[in-house]
Design a protein that fits this description.
Length: 1028
């Protein structure tokens, strides 16, 4: 961070001067942004004049200019925000490692004189977290990928700025005290939105800044800012985790389109663009892909009081569907023993099939069928090729066809809709009858269909989202979450809701326990509470709490902010005409008082449409289409269910009669939702009988059962070790000293030179080329290979498939070069390349970024200087000797080996180059089908042909010697393992070389140019004299 020499003054005069200076910088930035946009628009016009519409060069230039224009337009929005209100806070602090104190202003967006001199920090910056949640005196903040920093916080100052003038400022140990919050909240809805960033509270900030690589469920009371916190969380993640998350990696799921339209309008204010938003129904439709027909299928809501169909929303229903699919799979996939013709060799049987099905629950039935076909065919092929069994060509062709599709062709002929209807019929027989849909489906029908598609049919999975944000989560039953959890694997969740607002009486969530068990399974997953209500006045809050006390269910405690306002008005009218006149009169009065957002809340969509039509005769009413209506200024007439997640300056509850709202828990929650939508004023007008929930007083001795309160602890950076600033500085100084001493810097900054550790290790080393012919001394103690498998022995077919596992990115994160080797780090592990001679490069790999590469039985180390280089480009690392070149793809971590003239020798598989699980390693190669792959035996003439075969190439029970693979392309692979080594050159499973049995899991091999080895006596080098 850039240090400021002169701290801003503390007096009002000094603060006003600082404000004007920063306003001028913001204005200059804004002017430059406008000029850039004008220039880009002029460039686009020039391109239209110069190039034809079909000209490829012109199209490329046009696309580039358009992208830059959009970026500049987003920048313009940011600069306009900065100009409108430059900042709202300030922190003064002392860094223990710095000589002088520092000070920074904090605003909605960052402001800088130039790239290197920020004058206002973005609220999302890591150090800004201390403004929101730290008290004065020593505190810490975390910078992603760098560690934990400690500072001594001396001052937190909050500002009120309007129209370029400093109205007021004050110092406080909290971000915004009740007095300031009350002042902000007293404004209308539109004004409050602009002040949210300035008033984020500690408990909200902890949720916003929690790692997106973990799951979190947040119980937030009405008015606690759940939706706002969720939106700020997305903004924070995109700002601080831009390498891991892009806008298209997010889904926002809401309960209705009005809420989503509101979110759509607010996100650009938080510098967020391109986030996909949908209702739960739309998400499940999306997961049906080609099986959803918009022309023939439609969606309908599940009625709240439909007890019969509501059972589809619970977890037991999902469990029944799981069992039904599993039973169907057991019937469809043959479990009979399969014998190879003529030989009666058992290729597969119930044990293998059941084991595979049990160990791969993540695969669909059709994917399992395809994989079983591949396993069966590979076992058949291995038997035929490995044991030299021959069949006449016609018979062989028939057998190939048989075993290629023995379990099926992988194409499910059954309609997922017919399958679902059959499941519903089975449920009816079991006493769980529901309506069987034809062409119209509710959300739980869609959830079941999406699950069936994923569980039974899908063969080509699509990566949908990395992080899913669900608002008003209590409105969905566990059936939806179980299906979602199954279909969207590998993503994390931010789930916001309030069980007191579960308006779906029969199937929503009345507590979080089941969802916690489903989602919060990781070490760092968390459940948090937002207990403070910032929305309602004391009068509205007390009225809403009285409503809630009519119910018989547990609630979470509410801590209201003390802000008084008008009393809640409850008025009875004689007839509908008087009732309508009172509604019109109340709305007009509110409009005269300056309220900009007003809601008339009705029981359902039919009543809302009717009242809206009547009101339009007297006052302006916004669009009443529940699918397209956007939240904004004006009068909205809405059914209560569509007000979830919204808030208004004033709310009028229309005719809450006993008929519309009978006394039960569900309707208690419905009226509680309606009452808590109001920021400043709430009015209730009715005609005949008022609902008992509103009319009857609550017994004074009645106490509500409360859920236990849980505090949210700040997320740990679980994916990396955190260092103190002192440790970081010490590490930097040590590196600097090493570079100064060695003067071994090569390549760009990411490749750093450091001194190799000097250790005495009693291992066998590969000598330099010039000394190979002179060495004949063997180790004093000859070690034996303890593998149970002899050279050339056939493996059990069950050992050939690679075990199921989660793939970890091999993308290159950093590289460090020493005199002897280069270490390349990724999230998956550490890769080391050690040039031994100009013709030999050792490749070592360990799992995990903190694991060290230890010495093994062989320690290849150049004893004479080998000239080699390491260079880095935008997309790759290049390590080269005079003879061999290794190119590491930075995106995948995969290597390719070439000769000095660019001839390709060997390359790793890009999808997953290498793998370590437990004490077994796999090195995946992309061998060509025509490439001749052989393994070298003990005798000079002993070559094991391995084309389309799988065999052990280690020397079990023999004196230790290095397995060697020889390629017809002129290279060799020496596998530096001490026990079992398996080479599988069957495309179905690999190809790969696997080692097993070592205590220390290390993938270790040598790539060598064979032409040189032959000249130096291959046999003497590898098998007799040096004893690799």
């Amino acid at each position: 961070m850039e240090k400021r020499r002169n701290l801003p003054g503390l007096t009002r005069e000094a603060e006003e001067q600082n404000l004007q200076e920063i306003i001028q910088i913001a204005q200059n930035n804004l002017d430059h942004a406008k000029a850039d946009i004008r220039k880009l628009n002029a460039d686009l016009e020039d391109l239209l004049d110069v190039y034809d519409a079909q000209d490829k060069e012109g199209l490329a230039l046009w696309n580039n200019a358009t992208v830059r224009l959009h970026e500049n337009e987003h920048n313009l929005v940011r600069y306009e925000k900065a100009r409108k209100k430059p900042y709202f806070g300030r922190i003064d602090f002392k860094d223990p490692n710095a000589k002088e104190a520092e000070s920074y202003y904090i605003g909605r967006v960052g402001i800088a004189r130039d790239v290197s001199e920020p004058v206002v920090l973005d609220w999302r910056a890591p150090i800004a977290s201390v403004y929101y949640e730290s008290s004065l005196d020593p505190c810490q903040y975390v910078v992603s990928s760098e560690g934990t920093f400690t500072i001594d916080l001396k001052r937190k100052r909050t500002y009120e700025i309007e129209n370029d003038h400093l109205k007021d400022f004050f110092d406080s140990d909290v971000v915004a005290n009740d007095e300031l919050l009350t002042k902000y909240l007293a404004k209308n809805k539109k004004a409050v939105l602009g002040e949210i960033v300035a008033t984020i509270q500690k408990e909200q900030n902890q949720i916003i800044r929690r790692s997106p690589k973990t799951n979190i469920i947040v119980q937030g009371v009405a008015g606690s800012g759940k939706t706002t916190v969720a939106m700020h969380r997305i903004s924070y993640i995109l700002y601080n985790y831009r390498d891991d998350f892009r806008p298209e990696d997010f889904y926002i799921i809401g309960s209705n389109r009005i809420l989503l339209n509101y979110i759509t309008g607010v996100l650009p204010e938080l510098d967020v663009y391109g986030i996909r938003q949908m209702t739960m129904e739309q998400l499940f439709i999306r997961l049906l892909y080609e099986d959803w027909d918009e022309q023939n299928y439609s969606v309908h809501p599940l009625e709240k009081d439909d007890a019969q169909n509501a059972q589809k929303g619970n977890r037991e229903w999902f469990h029944d569907l799981e069992l039904y699919c599993a039973a169907y799979e057991q019937r469809e996939i043959s479990h009979e023993k399969i014998y190879l013709e003529d030989t009666e060799t058992l290729l597969a049987g119930p044990v293998l099939i059941n084991t595979y099905l049990r160990e791969h629950p993540e695969l669909s039935m059709q994917s399992k069928i395809l994989m079983l076909n591949e396993i069966l065919y590979a076992r058949y092929e291995n038997e035929v090729l490995g044991k030299q069994i021959s069949y006449p060509a016609k018979v062989k062709k028939a057998l190939d066809k048989k075993y290629t599709s023995y379990f099926g062709d992988g194409k499910w002929k059954t309609s997922i809709y017919d399958f679902y209807r059959e499941f519903l019929q089975v449920q009816a027989v079991a006493g769980k009858e529901v309506d069987i849909p034809e062409n119209s489906f509710d959300v739980y029908d869609l959830a079941a269909l999406a699950y069936i598609y994923k569980r039974m049919k899908e063969t080509d999975p699509v990566r949908e989202a990395s992080h899913v944000v669900i608002d008003e989560a209590q409105d969905f039953g566990m059936m939806a979450y179980c299906c979602l959890h199954y279909c969207l694997r590998g993503c994390t969740y931010t789930i916001m809701g309030d069980t007191s607002q579960n308006i779906h009486f029969q199937y929503g969530l009345n507590d979080w326990e089941e969802l916690k068990k489903l989602v919060l399974t990781g070490t760092y997953d968390a459940f948090g509470l937002l207990q403070k209500s910032y929305r309602n006045t004391v009068e509205i809050s007390e009225y809403a709490n009285d409503i809630l006390r009519h119910g018989d269910f547990a609630v979470y405690p509410v801590e209201p902010i003390i802000r008084h306002g008008a009393k809640v008005r409850v008025e009875k009218k004689q007839d509908l005409q008087e009732l309508l006149a009172q509604v019109v009169h109340t709305i007009r009065q509110w409009q005269q008082d300056g309220y900009e957002t007003i809601a008339v809340i009705c029981r359902d969509a039919i009543e809302a449409a009717k009242i809206a039509a009547q009101l339009k005769q007297y006052i302006a009413v916004t669009d009443c289409d529940l699918e397209t209506t956007e939240f904004g200024e004006g009068v909205m007439v809405l059914p209560v269910a569509y007000t979830k997640g919204l808030e208004f300056d004033a709310v009028l509850l229309y005719d809450p009669s006993e008929k519309n709202y009978p006394l039960d828990n569900g309707h208690v929650k419905l009226l509680y939702v309606a009452a808590t939508r109001a920021l400043h004023e709430l009015a209730v007008v009715y005609q005949e009988s008022l609902s008992k929930i509103l009319a009857d007083p609550v017994p004074e001795n009645k106490k509500m059962q409360e859920f236990s309160s849980e505090t949210l602890t700040k997320a740990k950076e679980y994916d990396r070790k955190l260092f103190t600033q002192k440790e970081i500085e010490q590490e930097r100084r040590a590196k600097g000293d090493k570079e100064h001493n060695i003067r071994g810097y090569i390549g760009p900054k990411k490749i750093e030179a450091c001194v190799p550790e000097e250790k005495t290790v009693h291992t066998h080393a590969i000598p330099p080329a010039s000394k190979i012919s002179k060495i004949s001394k063997k180790p004093a103690i000859e070690q034996m290979n303890m593998s149970p498998y002899a050279f050339g022995e056939l493996p059990d077919n069950r050992s050939l498939p690679v075990r199921s596992h989660a793939k970890i990115s091999g993308a290159v994160k950093s590289a460090k070069k020493t005199k002897e080797h280069i270490d390349i780090a990724s999230a998956a592990g550490l890769l080391r390349l050690t040039p031994i001679t100009p013709e030999i490069i050792r490749v070592s790999y360990v799992k995990g970024v903190t694991t060290k590469i230890k010495n093994t039985y062989w320690k290849p180390k150049a004893e004479e200087t080998v000239l080699w280089s390491a260079k880095e480009s935008k997309s790759a690392l290049r390590v080269a000797t005079e003879k061999v070149v290794v190119i590491i793809d930075k995106k995948t971590g995969a290597m390719r080996f070439e000769t000095a003239d660019g001839t390709l020798l060997l390359k790793e598989r890009t999808t997953e180059p290498r793998l370590i699980m437990g004490n077994q390693t796999w090195e995946f190669f992309d061998w060509e089908f025509s490439e001749k792959i052989n393994a070298k035996g003990v005798l000079s003439t002993d070559l094991l042909v391995l084309r389309s075969k799988a065999k052990y190439i280690s020397f079990g029970g023999k004196p230790m010697r290095m397995p060697l693979v020889l390629s017809g392309k002129g290279y060799g692979i020496g596998v530096a393992a001490t026990q079992s080594v398996l080479l599988c050159n069957i495309k179905t499973y690999g190809p790969y070389i696997s080692t097993q049995g070592v205590i220390y899991a290390l993938s270790d091999f040598l790539i060598m140019i064979l032409s040189w080895l032959v000249k130096q006596s291959l046999r003497a080098f590898l098998f007799q004299e040096v004893q690799l």
